[in-house]
Automatic annotation (TrEMBL):
Its membrane topology: Multi-pass membrane protein
Record protein name field: PTS alpha-glucoside transporter subunit IIA
A single GO molecular function term of this UniProt record: protein-N(PI)-phosphohistidine-sugar phosphotransferase activity
PTS EIIC type-1 domain residues: 134-486
Pfam family, one: PTS_EIIB
Ranges annotated as spanning the membrane: 139-160, 172-189, 196-215, 257-282, 302-325, 337-359, 449-470
Highest rank taxon of the organism: Bacteria
One GO-annotated biological process of the protein: phosphoenolpyruvate-dependent sugar phosphotransferase system
Chief location of this protein within or outside the cell: membrane
Signal peptide: none
Keywords associated with the record: Cell membrane, Kinase, Membrane, Phosphotransferase system, Sugar transport, Transferase, Transmembrane, Transmembrane helix, Transport
């Protein structure tokens, strides 16, 4: 089967299991997940959905998130959208997925516990503050593919420059890699207006003021502005203010004049406020974020790395990790890379090490071992949801010991930052081995890659040892390390049993 047919088949199998086209309200995707807004969540057949070969896991949040993995999700999503549209118009009907039957009992029990924990997490995270953070994340997540692409090109260009290869090509690669970052404020403004219910192009127009070279002629508080001052934070604030002005105008301007008055007033008021206030304030905040990250890791790198690496997954469970996305983007915009992401990536290394320990400890439980084997390689590539929700979190103690692995891996990378070797990433989104092409630092790619790779090894080993030694009580081993009873189909017939005794 060709890749195109394979992705079409995956989309066709998913659609009926989420309630069909009429149940799909919205379709989007991020780095690894197909995100579906559903009208009735109860119509989703979770167990059959998880049984699909291409599906690595199902995460329930504000949307139904189906984990397909990097690369695959970007190819399945348009096929899924086409099927939804076709079914709605009656041009085609997706065929139902075959019934694969029930999986191993023990693995199903863990999956059920994982689903219950996700539901509890969703209920806890539905606070106004966390919902606001989720909206902020929705602004930046669509930018991740461009950040990754440009980041990899920037890394390749830096390697060529250091090696003095292809001097005639490197300026062109620098332009390709830097063009998006030079205008990222415009995209942030566009997405902000879209997320908060305004006209996206007006948000982009207001945010473009920040990167316009002519702002250097504007004087505020006795100082001239600099193009790009305030960066993505200024763009976010400017576009949000534009949405507020636009909504105010829509309520008061007569319909006959709306098309002329509302865009003009929105851009004028929000634009002047951006020039004479927001750019300066956001620039100060951006500077302090960069200085704060530098001080944090230069003075307490090992301790900070220990806390960040160990607490990142609990932050994810609480929904607070979304507050880090604009911080990452601000650091990338200012320094060219974020020093926080490689440390946070160590949390995934701890999960991988813990999963291997679970595999070794539960030698007789073929059900859980099968789940670990299927989720382990995605875990190496930074897709941690199948391991978290299918293995460590439902088991309880292995999740804690996995966080220990992340803490020690983060401390290792943080220590090198403290000693003067910055280890950063030029983009956000990837983790694990997938982060290697995006690594950057202040001492060249060789040392940066070596420190990050050694940090992963520390996370793997510590997560494994902590889980192997402390991840299971005797009662847990008695409960889980038992071979599942054979089904009626697997039991030999009486004649066969008699023959076995002879």
């Amino acid at each position: 089967m060709s890749d195109e047919n394979k992705h079409h088949a995956t989309a066709a199998a998913i659609l009926p299991l989420v309630g069909g086209a009429e149940n799909v309200a919205s379709v989007a995707h991020c780095m690894t997940r197909l995100r579906l807004g559903l009208r009735d969540r109860s119509l989703v057949r979770d167990e059959q959905l998880k049984a699909l070969p291409a599906v690595m896991g199902v995460v329930e949040d504000d949307t139904c998130q189906i984990v397909l993995g990097p690369g695959t999700v970007a190819r399945v999503t348009p096929e899924f959208e086409a099927l939804v549209e076709a079914e709605r118009t009656g041009a085609a009907t997706a065929s139902p997925a075959p019934d694969r039957g029930d999986g191993p009992v023990t693995a199903e029990a863990l999956a059920a516990q994982g689903a219950a924990l996700r539901a509890q997490r969703k209920a806890r995270n539905a606070t106004p503050f966390k919902l606001f953070l989720r909206r902020i994340a929705n602004i930046f997540v669509p930018l991740i593919p461009a950040l990754i692409g440009c980041g990899i090109i920037a890394g390749l260009n830096g390697l060529l420059v250091n090696l003095h290869w292809l001097p005639g090509v490197t300026p062109a690669l620098a332009a390709v890699a830097s063009g998006f970052m030079a205008l990222i404020a415009v995209f942030v403004g566009h997405n902000t207006a879209k997320e908060f219910g305004g006209t996206p192009v007006l948000g982009g127009a207001i945010a473009s003021i920040i990167v316009y070279a002519g702002v250097a002629d504007v004087e505020v508080f006795g100082r001239h502005l600099s193009p790009g001052q305030g960066g993505v934070l200024g763009a976010l604030g400017a576009a949000w203010l534009g949405v507020c002005v636009e909504k105010w105008c829509r309520r008061r301007v007569p319909e006959a004049l709306d098309v002329l008055v509302t865009p003009t007033v929105t851009v004028l008021v929000a634009g002047l406020a951006t020039l004479f206030g927001l750019m300066f304030l956001a620039g100060e905040v951006s500077t302090r974020i960069g200085d704060g990250a530098d001080r944090l890791l230069s003075h307490g790198g090992a301790g900070a790395g220990f806390l960040l690496g160990g607490l990142f997954l609990p932050l994810v469970m609480l929904g607070l990790h979304q507050a880090l996305i604009p911080i990452h983007t601000t650091l990338i915009e200012g320094a060219g890379f974020t020093v926080l992401l490689p440390i946070l990536a160590m949390a995934g290394a701890g999960q991988v090490g813990a999963a291997i320990a679970v595999y070794c400890r539960l030698r007789h439980n073929t059900s859980i071992r099968t789940t670990v084997k299927s989720a382990l390689w995605p875990g190496f590539l930074g897709v941690g949801e199948p391991l978290i929700y299918g293995v460590s979190l439902p088991l309880g103690r292995p999740f804690v010991t996995a966080c220990t692995g992340g803490a020690f891996g983060g401390a290792f990378v943080g220590l090198f930052n403290q000693l003067g070797t910055d280890v950063g990433s030029t983009a956000i989104g990837p983790s694990g081995w997938a982060l290697f092409p995006l690594l950057d630092g202040n001492h060249g790619p060789g040392r940066t890659v070596a420190v990050y790779a050694a940090g992963l090894v520390v996370g793997y080993v510590t997560g494994f040892l902590a889980t192997y030694c402390f991840g299971f009580t005797k009662a847990m081993l008695t409960e889980f390390d038992t071979a599942p009873a054979p089904s009626a189909e697997d039991r030999p017939a009486p004649a066969e049993r008699a023959a076995e005794k002879i």
